[in-house]
Design a protein that fits this description.
The chain has six helices and 17 strands. The protein is α/β, with parallel strands linked by helices. It folds into two domains: 177 residues, 3-Layer(bba) Sandwich (FAD/NAD(P)-binding domain); 119 residues, FAD/NAD(P)-binding domain (3-Layer(bba) Sandwich). Strands 1, 2, 3, 4, 5, 6 and 17 form a seven-stranded mixed beta sheet that branches. A five-stranded parallel beta sheet has the order 8-15-9-10-11, covered by helices on one side. The chain is elongated, with a radius of gyration of 21 Å.
Length: 306
Amino acid sequence: MYDVIVIGAGPAGMTAAIYTARAGYKTLILETGAPGGQAATTDTIENYPGFPGGISGPELMMKFYEQAVGFGVDMEFQYVDGIEVEGHQKKVKLGDKIYESKAVIIASGARPKVLGVDGESKFRGKGVSYCATCDGFFFKDKEVVVIGGGDTAVEEALYLAKICKKVTIIHRRDQLRANKIAQYRAINNAKIEFLWDSVVDEIRGTENVEELTIHNVRTQEKTRINASGVFIFVGYIPNSDYLPREIGFDEYGYVLTDSMLRTNLPGVFAIGDIRQKRLRQVATAVGDGAEVITALEEYLLEHGGN
C-alpha cells in the first residue's frame, strides 16, 4: 500500500513525487519508458530557468529522476493497464501486478500528432520540431515552414516570425481555422507566406532538414521548397487510453480538473500535459507538480493519510 502513486515520470510527475516524498508520503512512480517524457527527447532546453547556457533534455530529466529517487521515491517501469477507484482505495493495474494507494496523480502526458510522412522521424530533433517556443531560436535568420492552420500553428508561426528570416505556413485547406486576431496578424506579417490547399509528402536532407516535397490537393501539382526547419502543429494526443470512463474528459480526451488539480474522482488528481490547459512547457508542468501537493495533503489528512 502506497500513500501516493504517480503515473508518468515526466517533469510534472517527478516534481509531484519529489514534493510528496519530502512531505513523508510513501510514493511510487509508474513509467512506460525512460524518465522525462517529451522533455527527454529535446536536444537542448534553453528556456528553463537556472541554466543560462542551456541543458540537454535528457540531462535535465535525469537530474529530476536522481532527485526523486534521492528522496526515496520508488520507480517501476511498466505500462499501466488501468485504474480502479473503490471508495478511498485506488488500484493501479500493470499486467499481472496490482499496486494499491490512497491517492493517484495522473501525469501521463500527451504526445504530438505526427504527419506520418517520409523523413519526419529521421529528422526529429534535426530540423523537425513540434514546439516553436522550445526550438525556434535554433533557426534564427533561417527559413522555416509551419504545418497546420489552427490556433497553435498560427500563433507559433507568429512567434517564429520574430526570429526567423521567413516562415511559410502550409495548410491543407484554403483558409485558416485559427482565431480571427491570429489570422489577421499572420496574414499582415511580411515575413509569413502561405501555401494553401497543400500537404507535405516528404521531408528531405542529409544530416539536417534541407527541403520538403509537397503537393496541392486541388491541382495535384508537386513542388519542392527549401527550409531549415519544419514545425508541425496538427494537434496532440493525450495519453489517457488506460483511464477509467468515469473520469471527466474534454472532447479531445484531456482530463478535466478544478483549480486545485482535482479530477471528478475523489483522491485522483491530474497534472501536466494530460490535463486540459493552454500551455504545455516544462516550467508549467513543474508548476502543476508543485501545486498539486496542497489538495493532495488535504485529501490524505481527511482520509487517514500521514
